Protein backbone atom coordinates (compact mmCIF):
# COMPACT_ATOMS: atom_id res chain seq x y z
CA UNK A 1 0.00 0.00 0.00
CA UNK A 2 1.27 3.44 -0.92
CA UNK A 3 1.08 6.22 1.63
CA UNK A 4 1.05 9.98 1.38
CA UNK A 5 1.78 12.06 4.44
CA UNK A 6 0.96 15.64 5.21
CA UNK A 7 1.34 17.65 8.42
CA UNK A 8 -2.01 18.29 10.08
CA UNK A 9 -1.65 17.87 13.83
CA UNK A 10 0.73 19.33 16.38
CA UNK A 11 3.71 17.02 16.72
CA UNK A 12 2.28 14.50 14.28
CA UNK A 13 1.48 13.90 10.64
CA UNK A 14 -1.57 12.28 9.17
CA UNK A 15 -0.90 9.23 7.03
CA UNK A 16 -3.51 8.97 4.31
CA UNK A 17 -4.26 5.35 3.40
CA UNK A 18 -4.48 4.91 -0.36
CA UNK A 19 -7.07 2.87 -2.20
CA UNK A 20 -6.11 -0.32 -3.96
CA UNK A 21 -5.66 1.40 -7.32
CA UNK A 22 -3.01 3.61 -5.75
CA UNK A 23 -4.31 6.92 -7.10
CA UNK A 24 -6.44 8.11 -4.19
CA UNK A 25 -5.39 9.25 -0.74
CA UNK A 26 -8.10 9.21 1.85
CA UNK A 27 -8.84 11.32 4.89
CA UNK A 28 -10.96 9.70 7.60
CA UNK A 29 -14.08 11.33 6.18
CA UNK A 30 -13.24 10.09 2.67
CA UNK A 31 -12.41 6.63 4.00
CA UNK A 32 -15.82 6.46 5.69
CA UNK A 33 -17.46 7.40 2.39
CA UNK A 34 -15.42 4.78 0.54
CA UNK A 35 -16.43 2.10 3.06
CA UNK A 36 -20.11 3.01 2.77
CA UNK A 37 -19.96 2.82 -1.03
CA UNK A 38 -18.46 -0.67 -0.88
CA UNK A 39 -21.23 -1.87 1.43
CA UNK A 40 -24.10 -0.24 -0.47
CA UNK A 41 -22.78 -1.46 -3.84
CA UNK A 42 -24.04 -4.95 -2.98
CA UNK A 43 -27.55 -6.25 -2.53
CA UNK A 44 -28.92 -6.22 1.05
CA UNK A 45 -27.77 -9.32 2.88
CA UNK A 46 -24.86 -9.95 0.50
CA UNK A 47 -22.32 -9.71 3.32
CA UNK A 48 -24.39 -11.68 5.81
CA UNK A 49 -25.66 -10.65 9.23
CA UNK A 50 -22.18 -10.02 10.65
CA UNK A 51 -20.87 -8.30 7.55
CA UNK A 52 -17.57 -10.18 7.72
CA UNK A 53 -17.38 -10.50 3.97
CA UNK A 54 -17.34 -6.73 3.66
CA UNK A 55 -14.00 -6.45 5.46
CA UNK A 56 -12.00 -8.00 2.63
CA UNK A 57 -13.69 -5.83 0.00
CA UNK A 58 -13.30 -2.66 2.07
CA UNK A 59 -9.60 -3.30 2.66
CA UNK A 60 -9.06 -4.04 -1.03
CA UNK A 61 -10.88 -0.89 -2.14
CA UNK A 62 -10.23 1.65 0.62
CA UNK A 63 -7.28 0.26 2.60
CA UNK A 64 -7.19 0.32 6.40
CA UNK A 65 -8.30 3.42 8.24
CA UNK A 66 -5.88 6.39 8.22
CA UNK A 67 -3.46 6.79 11.15
CA UNK A 68 -1.20 9.44 12.62
CA UNK A 69 2.58 9.27 12.41
CA UNK A 70 4.03 10.79 15.56
CA UNK A 71 7.58 11.47 16.72
CA UNK A 72 7.68 8.05 18.38
CA UNK A 73 5.66 5.89 15.99
CA UNK A 74 2.02 5.75 14.93
CA UNK A 75 -1.29 6.51 16.63
CA UNK A 76 -4.97 6.04 15.96
CA UNK A 77 -7.09 9.06 15.19
CA UNK A 78 -9.04 10.33 18.18
CA UNK A 79 -12.42 9.29 16.77
CA UNK A 80 -11.09 5.77 16.18
CA UNK A 81 -9.81 5.51 19.75
CA UNK A 82 -13.09 6.89 21.10
CA UNK A 83 -15.02 4.33 19.07
CA UNK A 84 -13.18 1.23 20.28
CA UNK A 85 -13.19 2.51 23.87
CA UNK A 86 -16.92 3.25 23.92
CA UNK A 87 -18.01 0.23 21.89
CA UNK A 88 -15.56 -2.67 21.70
CA UNK A 89 -13.95 -2.32 25.12
CA UNK A 90 -17.32 -1.72 26.75
CA UNK A 91 -18.50 -5.03 25.26
CA UNK A 92 -15.54 -6.81 26.87
CA UNK A 93 -17.50 -6.87 30.13
CA UNK A 94 -19.54 -9.73 28.61
CA UNK A 95 -18.74 -13.14 30.12
CA UNK A 96 -17.70 -14.63 26.78
CA UNK A 97 -14.71 -12.27 26.65
CA UNK A 98 -13.14 -13.59 29.86
CA UNK A 99 -11.54 -16.52 28.07
CA UNK A 100 -11.89 -15.65 24.39
CA UNK A 101 -11.16 -11.93 24.53
CA UNK A 102 -12.21 -10.10 21.37
CA UNK A 103 -13.03 -13.41 19.70
CA UNK A 104 -15.86 -13.86 22.15
CA UNK A 105 -17.53 -10.54 21.31
CA UNK A 106 -20.53 -10.13 19.08
CA UNK A 107 -19.77 -9.00 15.53
CA UNK A 108 -20.93 -5.38 15.93
CA UNK A 109 -18.43 -4.84 18.75
CA UNK A 110 -15.60 -6.54 16.84
CA UNK A 111 -16.30 -4.47 13.74
CA UNK A 112 -14.74 -1.40 15.37
CA UNK A 113 -11.28 -2.99 15.28
CA UNK A 114 -11.28 -5.13 12.12
CA UNK A 115 -10.36 -2.26 9.81
CA UNK A 116 -7.79 -0.47 11.97
CA UNK A 117 -4.24 -0.18 10.67
CA UNK A 118 -1.72 -2.59 12.19
CA UNK A 119 0.75 0.32 12.19
CA UNK A 120 -1.08 1.88 15.11
CA UNK A 121 -3.23 -0.88 16.58
CA UNK A 122 -1.86 -3.96 18.36
CA UNK A 123 -4.75 -6.42 18.35
CA UNK A 124 -2.99 -8.81 20.73
CA UNK A 125 -2.53 -6.08 23.32
CA UNK A 126 -6.18 -5.12 23.00
CA UNK A 127 -7.18 -8.81 23.15
CA UNK A 128 -5.35 -9.19 26.49
CA UNK A 129 -6.89 -5.99 27.84
CA UNK A 130 -10.35 -7.20 26.80
CA UNK A 131 -9.96 -10.38 28.85
CA UNK A 132 -8.66 -8.35 31.79
CA UNK A 133 -11.68 -6.04 31.69
CA UNK A 134 -13.97 -9.06 31.64
CA UNK A 135 -12.34 -10.73 34.61
CA UNK A 136 -11.90 -7.59 36.76
CA UNK A 137 -15.19 -5.97 35.68
CA UNK A 138 -13.36 -2.66 35.52
CA UNK A 139 -12.43 -0.53 32.51
CA UNK A 140 -9.37 1.74 32.41
CA UNK A 141 -10.20 5.42 32.16
CA UNK A 142 -10.15 6.95 28.68
CA UNK A 143 -6.81 8.69 29.19
CA UNK A 144 -4.96 5.54 30.23
CA UNK A 145 -6.67 3.54 27.49
CA UNK A 146 -5.41 6.04 24.94
CA UNK A 147 -1.85 5.61 26.19
CA UNK A 148 -2.03 1.81 26.27
CA UNK A 149 -3.85 1.12 23.01
CA UNK A 150 -4.07 4.18 20.77
CA UNK A 151 -0.62 5.74 20.90
CA UNK A 152 -1.79 8.83 22.75
CA UNK A 153 -1.26 11.38 24.17
CA UNK A 154 -1.37 13.59 21.08
CA UNK A 155 -2.48 17.22 21.16
CA UNK A 156 -5.46 16.64 18.87
CA UNK A 157 -6.78 20.11 19.56
CA UNK A 158 -3.53 21.77 18.43
CA UNK A 159 -4.18 21.23 14.75
CA UNK A 160 -1.71 22.78 12.33
CA UNK A 161 -2.91 24.43 9.16
CA UNK A 162 -3.04 21.86 6.34
CA UNK A 163 -1.53 23.12 3.11
CA UNK A 164 -4.66 22.31 1.10
CA UNK A 165 -8.11 21.11 2.14
CA UNK A 166 -10.47 19.65 -0.48
CA UNK A 167 -14.16 20.28 0.09
CA UNK A 168 -15.98 17.84 -2.17
CA UNK A 169 -19.45 18.40 -3.60
CA UNK A 170 -19.07 22.04 -2.59
CA UNK A 171 -19.59 25.44 -4.19
CA UNK A 172 -18.01 28.74 -3.11
CA UNK A 173 -21.15 30.86 -3.49
CA UNK A 174 -24.82 30.93 -2.55
CA UNK A 175 -27.46 29.42 -4.86
CA UNK A 176 -24.89 27.35 -6.75
CA UNK A 177 -26.80 24.99 -9.02
CA UNK A 178 -25.62 21.99 -11.02
CA UNK A 179 -27.30 20.76 -14.18
CA UNK A 180 -27.54 22.42 -17.59
CA UNK A 181 -25.12 25.32 -18.08
CA UNK A 182 -24.60 27.40 -21.23
CA UNK A 183 -21.19 28.94 -21.85
CA UNK A 184 -21.01 32.73 -22.13
CA UNK A 185 -17.46 32.46 -23.48
CA UNK A 186 -14.88 29.80 -24.36
CA UNK A 187 -13.73 27.76 -21.32
CA UNK A 188 -10.64 25.53 -21.11
CA UNK A 189 -11.15 21.85 -20.22
CA UNK A 190 -8.94 19.80 -17.88
CA UNK A 191 -8.54 16.05 -17.48
CA UNK A 192 -8.82 16.24 -13.67
CA UNK A 193 -8.32 18.74 -10.84
CA UNK A 194 -4.71 19.99 -10.83
CA UNK A 195 -4.02 18.12 -14.09
CA UNK A 196 -2.99 19.61 -17.39
CA UNK A 197 -5.36 21.14 -19.93
CA UNK A 198 -6.86 18.80 -22.53
CA UNK A 199 -6.22 21.13 -25.45
CA UNK A 200 -9.98 21.38 -25.92
CA UNK A 201 -12.49 24.07 -24.97
CA UNK A 202 -16.15 24.53 -24.33
CA UNK A 203 -17.17 27.02 -26.98
CA UNK A 204 -19.37 30.06 -26.43
CA UNK A 205 -23.04 29.06 -26.59
CA UNK A 206 -22.30 25.38 -25.97
CA UNK A 207 -24.48 23.62 -23.40
CA UNK A 208 -22.89 21.25 -20.90
CA UNK A 209 -24.05 19.43 -17.76
CA UNK A 210 -22.39 20.35 -14.47
CA UNK A 211 -22.23 17.15 -12.41
CA UNK A 212 -20.48 18.12 -9.19
CA UNK A 213 -17.62 20.27 -7.96
CA UNK A 214 -14.95 20.53 -5.30
CA UNK A 215 -13.14 23.47 -3.75
CA UNK A 216 -9.39 23.22 -3.04
CA UNK A 217 -8.55 25.74 -0.30
CA UNK A 218 -5.44 27.07 1.41
CA UNK A 219 -7.10 27.61 4.78
CA UNK A 220 -6.61 30.35 7.32
CA UNK A 221 -6.32 29.59 11.04
CA UNK A 222 -8.88 31.47 13.10
CA UNK A 223 -10.44 31.73 16.56
CA UNK A 224 -14.22 31.53 16.79
CA UNK A 225 -15.72 34.70 18.31
CA UNK A 226 -19.46 34.16 17.77
CA UNK A 227 -21.71 31.20 16.98
CA UNK A 228 -25.34 30.31 16.40
CA UNK A 229 -27.21 27.16 17.45
CA UNK A 230 -26.45 25.36 14.18
CA UNK A 231 -22.73 25.98 14.77
CA UNK A 232 -22.93 24.70 18.34
CA UNK A 233 -24.82 21.60 17.14
CA UNK A 234 -21.82 20.81 14.92
CA UNK A 235 -19.40 21.12 17.84
CA UNK A 236 -18.13 24.61 16.93
CA UNK A 237 -17.89 26.83 20.00
CA UNK A 238 -16.61 30.29 20.87
CA UNK A 239 -12.88 30.10 21.53
CA UNK A 240 -12.29 27.08 19.27
CA UNK A 241 -9.50 27.05 16.70
CA UNK A 242 -10.81 26.36 13.19
CA UNK A 243 -9.59 26.78 9.61
CA UNK A 244 -11.53 28.97 7.22
CA UNK A 245 -11.78 27.39 3.76
CA UNK A 246 -14.09 29.42 1.51
CA UNK A 247 -17.30 31.36 1.50
CA UNK A 248 -20.65 29.71 0.81
CA UNK A 249 -22.85 32.82 0.68
CA UNK A 250 -24.51 35.42 2.91
CA UNK A 251 -21.41 35.63 5.12
CA UNK A 252 -21.38 31.90 5.93
CA UNK A 253 -18.19 29.90 5.38
CA UNK A 254 -16.94 26.36 5.03
CA UNK A 255 -14.45 25.54 7.77
CA UNK A 256 -12.28 22.65 8.92
CA UNK A 257 -12.20 21.55 12.55
CA UNK A 258 -10.33 18.48 13.77
CA UNK A 259 -10.21 17.11 10.23
CA UNK A 260 -13.95 17.55 9.56
CA UNK A 261 -15.42 20.07 7.12
CA UNK A 262 -18.41 22.00 8.46
CA UNK A 263 -20.68 24.74 7.15
CA UNK A 264 -21.15 27.75 9.40
CA UNK A 265 -24.28 29.76 10.06
CA UNK A 266 -24.63 33.29 8.73
CA UNK A 267 -24.16 34.54 12.32
CA UNK A 268 -20.80 32.80 12.68
CA UNK A 269 -17.85 35.14 13.32
CA UNK A 270 -14.12 34.61 13.71
CA UNK A 271 -10.79 36.38 14.17
CA UNK A 272 -7.77 35.40 12.10
CA UNK A 273 -4.76 34.22 14.11
CA UNK A 274 -2.19 35.64 11.67
CA UNK A 275 -2.87 39.38 11.59
CA UNK A 276 -0.24 40.05 8.92
CA UNK A 277 -1.13 37.27 6.44
CA UNK A 278 -3.92 36.95 3.88
CA UNK A 279 -7.31 38.24 4.95
CA UNK A 280 -9.25 35.69 2.92
CA UNK A 281 -8.46 32.06 2.02
CA UNK A 282 -7.15 31.26 -1.44
CA UNK A 283 -9.03 28.52 -3.24
CA UNK A 284 -9.56 26.91 -6.63
CA UNK A 285 -13.03 25.80 -7.69
CA UNK A 286 -13.06 22.69 -9.90
CA UNK A 287 -16.29 21.63 -11.63
CA UNK A 288 -16.84 18.20 -13.18
CA UNK A 289 -18.83 18.55 -16.42
CA UNK A 290 -20.25 16.29 -19.11
CA UNK A 291 -20.09 17.50 -22.71
CA UNK A 292 -22.87 16.92 -25.21
CA UNK A 293 -21.04 13.93 -26.67
CA UNK A 294 -20.90 12.26 -23.27
CA UNK A 295 -17.24 13.01 -22.49
CA UNK A 296 -16.53 14.10 -18.92
CA UNK A 297 -13.89 16.67 -18.02
CA UNK A 298 -13.20 19.43 -15.49
CA UNK A 299 -13.22 23.21 -15.64
CA UNK A 300 -11.32 25.55 -13.35
CA UNK A 301 -12.74 28.62 -11.59
CA UNK A 302 -15.67 29.15 -13.98
CA UNK A 303 -16.71 32.33 -12.17
CA UNK A 304 -19.67 33.74 -14.11
CA UNK A 305 -18.71 32.01 -17.37
CA UNK A 306 -22.02 30.14 -17.67
CA UNK A 307 -25.72 30.82 -17.63
CA UNK A 308 -27.68 28.41 -15.43
CA UNK A 309 -25.11 28.05 -12.63
CA UNK A 310 -26.72 30.59 -10.29
CA UNK A 311 -30.06 29.41 -8.96
CA UNK A 312 -30.80 32.91 -7.64
CA UNK A 313 -29.86 34.73 -10.83
Please, could you describe this protein's structure?
The radius of gyration is 23 Å and the shape is globular. The strands form 4 sheets. Strands 6, 7, 10, 16, 17 and 18 form a 6-stranded antiparallel beta sheet that branches. The model is unreliable at 1-25 (pLDDT under 50). It is 24% helix and 32% strand. Strand 2 (12-18) and strand 3 (25-26) form a beta hairpin. With 313 residues, the chain is an alpha+beta fold. The protein folds into 2 domains: 3-150, no CATH class; 165-307, no CATH class. The chain contains 8 helices and 18 strands. Helix 1 (28-40) crosses helix 2 and helix 3 (78-91) packs across helix 7 (142-150).
